[in-house]
Amino acid sequence: MGNPLYDRLFGIHAGKDTAFLHLPDGRIITHSEFLDMAARIANALTGLELEPGDRVAVQVEKSPEMLALYAACAQAGLIFLPLNTAYKTAELTYFIENSGAALVVCDTVNEAGLAPLAQAQNARLETLNADGSGSLMRRALGMLTAFEPVRRSEDDLAAFLYTSGTTGRSKGAMLTQANLLSNAETLVREWQFTKDDVLLHALPIFHTHGLFVATNVMLAAGGSMIFLPKFDLNDMLRLMPQATSMMGVPTFYTRLLDDDRFTGDLARHMRLFISGSAPLLAETHEQFEARTGHRILERYGMTETNMNTSNPYDGDRRAGTVGFPLPGVDLKVTDPETGEALPQGEIGMIEVRGPNVFQGYWQMPEKTAEELRDDGFFITGDLGRVDEDGYVHIVGRGKDLIISGGFNIYPKEIELLLDDQPGVLESAVIGVPHPDFGETVLGILVPEAGQTPDLQAILATVQDQLARFKHPRQLIVLDELPRNTMGKVQKNALREIYKDVFTPA
Ligand code: MCA
Ligand code: AMP
After folding, report:
1. Cβ 204 under 6 angstroms from ligand 1
2. Is the CB of 46 inside a 6 Å radius of any atom of ligand 2?
3. pLDDT in tens, the chain (505 residues)
4. SS3 72
5. Is the CB of 405 under 6 A from ligand 1?
6. Residue 208 beta carbon below 6 angstroms from any ligand 1 atom
């Protein structure tokens, strides 16, 4: 039986002195050096008395060591639970408590803040910093570079990724080894990745895109990655000549296009540019082709499902579409009210089924039942249609979601906080177009009678409680919110009124 995730992504590289990570300072980490590091960490984790199936919550900066911690968790049968580095203590508290993490790994600067929380639930606390220092690597240093992978089956859980919801409460999406492996192996074939590929990797590795799409695909293909700590335009331009491929959110592409140094010559040698996590404007697709001759390959996925659809590698990559269902993925468009399949061409709810679809939300059977049907179809919350050529178009969202620079934000979480502020009767949070982030957050407040809320004080509270990317970029005060006859706030009307706030005509 072995350990399929470890064996097929990591074990296959044992003893290979081929390049795996190219670091921005020119250093190269080979596959075998990386596996040695992972095995040392796996030994260190076992030394902490962690048991297979335990959750390891990780909020650290992107680094080779963080990636090796992911490999070590796979090897030791632990559930990897990466967390956005922007989250504040208040947000982390929920994830750590809800997941029942047995180990929390954080940056040294956050250690004191997280210690009481870890202690309260008997979790171990170790540190790992961007430069690879910290208590976890100190433990790992003295360990052996051999570690027999813990036996696991494809049905065992490999990762939890938290995804927020319309109620404001985040849900832990449970992903098995099979979910991750099936998707990675499909994408390698569909996008024709090989050991000769060098991926320009500037995405964070705490989300599906940077970890399960970009990294797992490169591991399965045996290629290497130019592993940047974050998106930095100068680094991207400097290092693109050494890459064959890039994956990014639409903001990566608009930022590249906004810079004159990004020329057709710089990109011509590249094999493939892939975009996802948020809608790529058809205009960006067209500008990119005009500048570089490349047609960006857009695909569509979710935390709960990994990737569902992709434009073709060979064939017409159509702007404004997310392509065809991937092999093994069933996709249908249904009536959001009845769940009945709609005739081809009609707009409705996108539902997907396949080996990529998660197992449910951790300890939330009701939420799971609301979104995952008994027959295996997952209700994505995205509204779309399939055109006469079979291309899937996402035309809107049936869920109240804002996607800013590829990060998902559920308005409810922010509204709950705004509603609690002195002098605020109620609030509505909407996404409005933003030239850099695609969408950004706008907060609309209604004061209590006779009150004038202190907007600066409210923003300060928001800053304290919520990750930066969730902060409303502006607060607007209104006497009342527009409502329909049922009393429901008409967010569409608000979005229309404020659509030009950040993108003046
Ligand atoms: C940073 N800031 C943001 C964002 N990122 N604000 C709103 N939205 C964001 N996405 C804050 C910074 O903290 C900073 O705050 C200010 O905005 C400007 O920062 P800037 O330097 O411009 O930002 P950056 O650090 O360059 O980051 C922008 C980014 C980054 C490169 C677009 O957000 C990014 O890498 N996004 C990718 C997200 C991703 O991987 N999503 C995949 C999710 P201050 O003003 O205080 O300095 S997985 C997924 O969605 C599914 C499964 C899928 O299909 O892939
Ligand atoms: P997440 O919850 O971070 O997994 O984000 C998943 C959501 O991102 C999907 O439900 C879509 O709304 C959105 N998304 C991902 N890829 C695309 C895309 N190519 N076009 C439009 N929306 C996308």
Report:
1. yes
2. no
3. 699 999 999 999 999 999 999 999 999 999 999 999 999 999 999 999 999 999 999 999 999 999 999 999 999 999 999 999 999 998 999 999 999 999 999 999 999 999 999 999 999 999 999 999 999 999 999 999 999 999 999 999 999 999 987 777 899 999 999 999 999 999 999 999 999 999 999 999 999 999 999 999 999 999 999 999 999 999 999 999 999 999 999 999 999 999 999 999 999 999 999 999 999 999 999 999 999 999 999 999 999 999 999 999 999 999 999 999 999 999 999 999 999 999 999 999 999 999 999 999 999 999 999 999 999 999 999 999 999 999 999 999 888 899 999 999 999 999 999 999 999 999 999 999 999 999 999 999 999 999 999 999 999 999 999 999 999 999 999 999 999 988 899 999 999 999 999 987 7
4. helix
5. yes
6. yes
Which ligand 1 atom minimizes the distance to the CA of 300?
54
DSSP three-state, residue 306: strand
Ligand nearest to the CA of 298: 2
Q: Which atom of ligand 1 is nearest to the CA of 230?
A: 35
Tokens of 283: 């205009």
Q: Identify which ligand lies nearest to the alpha carbon of 162.
A: 2
> Token digits for 26?
């020119």
Structure tokens at 441: 């957050």
Nearest atom in ligand 1 to 468's CA: 13
Establish whether residue 276 lines the binding site of ligand 2, counting it when its CB lies within 6 angstroms of any ligand atom. Answer: yes
Q: Which of 303, 469, 470 for a ligand 1 pocket mutation test, highest count of atoms within 8 Å of Cβ?
A: 469
Identify the burial level of 52 via C-beta atoms within 10 angstroms of its C-beta, where 0-12 means exposed, 13-18 middle and 19 or more buried.
Answer: middle
The strand pair at 55-59 and 79-82 is best described as parallel
Which string of DSSP letters, residue by residue, matches 123-186?
-EEEE--TTS-SHHHHHHHTS-S--PPPP--TTSEEEEEEE--TTS--EEEEEEHHHHHHHHHH
Q: Give 315's contacts (C-beta < 8 A, 6+ positions apart).
A: none
Q: Report the distance separating Cα 416 and Cα 163, nearest Å.
A: 17
User: From the CA of 48, how far away is ligand 1's center (Å)?
Assistant: 34
CB of 249 shorter than 6 A to ligand 1: yes
With a 6 Å cutoff on the Cβ, whether 228 touches ligand 1 is: no
C-alpha–C-alpha distance, residues 2 and 84, integer Å: 31
Query: What element of type H or E holds 111?
Result: helix 111-120
Nearest ligand 2 atom to the CA of 394 is 21
> Would the CB of 437 count as within 6 Å of ligand 1?
yes
pTM of the predicted structure, to 2 decimals: 0.97
Cα of 469 vs centre of ligand 1, distance in Å, is 7
